[in-house]
């Protein structure tokens, strides 16, 4: 964890803010479309919007790739978009079940990865990101990183439990308010709030940069997780 990490010779290349913003907008647009379709009782169209969001992300990755990889990603994106169109026109899956699986499994997967890194013999995920960002991590920052890893191990799973409880007692619409609206808002607020808290609690280490943190998280030395602990 550091303000910018720009002073390090091995610091990761800064991610392009435009690319990060476009990816975030695609994800938010897909979630908003899914939520509105659920409220309109158009479950098949909601599932199609989710599939189209995946296709858009695939096509965006294709634009950033080169050569054969660009062709493969573009082809996969077009194929996925076509599947979404077929789903909207003539549902192939039970839309209600298919809508539940991606956010539920996605949040549980995130929780599982962070929880795995908290097991004995492993390096907490946020501590690893901090070490890649700044090299040596002071003891107080290391303790903070471990606590933040616990937050990310618990929060996504808690949100999905709340969403499934809302589904059981309030139906698909209540589930959508939590899974498609509260979920991204809470995760974003937690991510930004941690940066504000860290800047206030540890001013001696500089002002944390959200863009720099995202750049470090995309660095191959910080991911993929899980990985064994390091000295």
Notes on the protein architecture:
- This is Ketosynthase.
- Keywords: Membrane, Transmembrane, Transmembrane helix.
- The protein contains eight helices and no strands.
- The protein is mainly alpha-helical.
- Helix 1 packs antiparallel against helix 2 (about 45-65) and helix 5 crosses helix 6 (about 140-170).
- The protein is globular.
Q: What overall geometry do the principal axes of the alpha carbons give?
A: globular
Helix count? 8
Percent helix: over 70%
Low-confidence stretches: 2-15, 225-231
As a whole number of angstroms, the C-alpha radius of gyration is 19 Å
Assess the beta-strand content as a share of residues: under 5%
Question: Quick one: how many beta strands?
Answer: 0
SSE inventory with pairings:
Layout lengths: L16 H23 L3 H22 L2 H23 L5 H22 L8 H10 L4 H32 L1 H30 L8 H8 L14
């Amino acid at each position: 964890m550091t303000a910018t990490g720009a002073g390090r010779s091995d610091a990761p290349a800064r991610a392009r803010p435009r690319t990060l913003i476009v990816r975030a907008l695609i994800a938010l647009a897909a979630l908003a479309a899914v939520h509105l379709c659920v409220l309109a009782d158009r479950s098949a169209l909601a599932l199609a919007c989710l599939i189209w969001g995946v296709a858009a992300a695939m096509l965006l990755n294709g634009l950033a790739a080169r050569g054969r990889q660009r062709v493969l990603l573009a082809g996969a994106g077009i194929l996925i978009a076509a599947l979404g169109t077929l789903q909207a026109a003539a549902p192939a899956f039970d839309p209600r079940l298919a809508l539940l699986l991606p956010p539920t499994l996605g949040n549980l997967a995130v929780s599982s990865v962070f929880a795995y890194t908290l097991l004995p013999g492993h390096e907490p995920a946020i501590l690893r990101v901090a070490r890649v960002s700044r090299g040596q991590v002071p003891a107080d920052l290391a303790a903070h990183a471990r606590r933040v890893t616990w937050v990310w191990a618990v929060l996504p799973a808690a949100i999905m439990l709340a969403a499934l409880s809302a589904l059981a007692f309030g139906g698909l619409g209540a589930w959508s308010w939590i899974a498609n609206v509260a979920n991204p808002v809470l995760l974003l607020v937690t991510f930004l709030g941690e940066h504000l808290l860290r800047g206030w609690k540890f001013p001696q280490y500089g002002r944390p940069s959200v863009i720099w943190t995202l750049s470090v998280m995309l660095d191959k030395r910080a991911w993929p997780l899980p990985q064994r602990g390091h000295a």
